[in-house]
Amino acid sequence: MGLHAALAVHPASGHGTAARIAGSVAARLREAVDRLDLLVADTVEQSRELMRGSHGEGLDLLVVLGGDGAAHQGVQFCASTGVALGLVPSGTGNDLARALNVPADPLDAVDALVAAVEAGRSRSLDLGTADGTWFGTVLCTGFDASVSERVNRMRWPSGPRRYDLAILAELAALRPRRFAVRADDDSVDIDATLLAVGNTAWYGGGIPVCPGAEPDDGMFDVTVVGRLPRHELLRMLPTLRTGAHVDHPAVRTFRAAELHIAGDGDPVYADGEPLGRLPASVRCVPGALSFVG
């Protein structure tokens, strides 16, 4: 029996980019697979239902055409079913695709995916899990999670500028956080501005908050930005775009396979999606995802 694939399309991704190129992407994929289901959904619930339907008919590969939100849903499905994942990025952030070296241009990405399918090439990747939810990129709490929460409420502008404006707004409301962190066998209480747990390096549309994180080493890279006054944080923020923030004296980095984070009910985000509020238990699961690309 041949390869059964599904293309999950989120039409609104990239301000309609996914909808515009879905036909071309599907046509290219059909050249490499024996069956392709086209799953077009406007809501998470619709997408999950369609994925379950394909899985019930022997699905081997789920290809997600969309941004990080769509990729996050694909990760949930694939990690829980054992179906392999492929990505064709067409969103505004595309942080998971960036971390996995998927070409930024969606048509180049589908060509690379087809080449991997034809060569029978796949790889096992780690995922994080936080209280029952999988994530592929970064889990965060503190200042950066508050920025994500604000970004999700904003309707303008698009892309990285939305994050920049949200950062400025959250700076005005900056307050210190107290976190109790248990990482593997160590426990510490820390005053921090933000805490990021990276399975991969990037979040927020290309910010390498955990620049050394790799998704196949069985460990998280954790970045903690200590308590900073507003003016000092403002000076440090541009270095986040380059990864140079790890050299700041207020920044601490370490590696861990498991963490428990407690705090004063701060929001928690992973893959740019809300996961509720602290406390949170986080674990790295080696080889949880089969990735084709």
UniProtKB/TrEMBL annotation:
<keyword id="KW-0443">Lipid metabolism</keyword>
<dbReference type="GO" id="GO:0008654">
    <property type="term" value="P:phospholipid biosynthetic process"/>
</dbReference>
<dbReference type="GO" id="GO:0004143">
    <property type="term" value="F:ATP-dependent diacylglycerol kinase activity"/>
</dbReference>
<keyword id="KW-0594">Phospholipid biosynthesis</keyword>
<dbReference type="GO" id="GO:0005524">
    <property type="term" value="F:ATP binding"/>
</dbReference>
<keyword id="KW-1208">Phospholipid metabolism</keyword>
<keyword id="KW-0479">Metal-binding</keyword>
<dbReference type="GO" id="GO:0046872">
    <property type="term" value="F:metal ion binding"/>
</dbReference>
<dbReference type="InterPro" id="IPR001206">
    <property type="entry name" value="Diacylglycerol_kinase_cat_dom"/>
</dbReference>
<keyword id="KW-0067">ATP-binding</keyword>
<dbReference type="InterPro" id="IPR017438">
    <property type="entry name" value="ATP-NAD_kinase_N"/>
</dbReference>
<dbReference type="InterPro" id="IPR045540">
    <property type="entry name" value="YegS/DAGK_C"/>
</dbReference>
<keyword id="KW-0444">Lipid biosynthesis</keyword>
<dbReference type="Pfam" id="PF19279">
    <property type="entry name" value="YegS_C"/>
</dbReference>
<dbReference type="InterPro" id="IPR050187">
    <property type="entry name" value="Lipid_Phosphate_FormReg"/>
</dbReference>
<keyword id="KW-0460">Magnesium</keyword>
<dbReference type="InterPro" id="IPR005218">
    <property type="entry name" value="Diacylglycerol/lipid_kinase"/>
</dbReference>
<dbReference type="Pfam" id="PF00781">
    <property type="entry name" value="DAGK_cat"/>
</dbReference>
<keyword id="KW-0808">Transferase</keyword>
<protein>
    <submittedName>
        <fullName>Sphingosine kinase</fullName>
    </submittedName>
</protein>
<dbReference type="GO" id="GO:0005886">
    <property type="term" value="C:plasma membrane"/>
</dbReference>
<comment type="similarity">
    <text>Belongs to the diacylglycerol/lipid kinase family.</text>
</comment>
<feature type="domain" description="DAGKc">
    <location>
        <begin position="1"/>
        <end position="134"/>
    </location>
</feature>
<dbReference type="InterPro" id="IPR016064">
    <property type="entry name" value="NAD/diacylglycerol_kinase_sf"/>
</dbReference>
<keyword id="KW-0418">Kinase</keyword>
<keyword id="KW-0547">Nucleotide-binding</keyword>
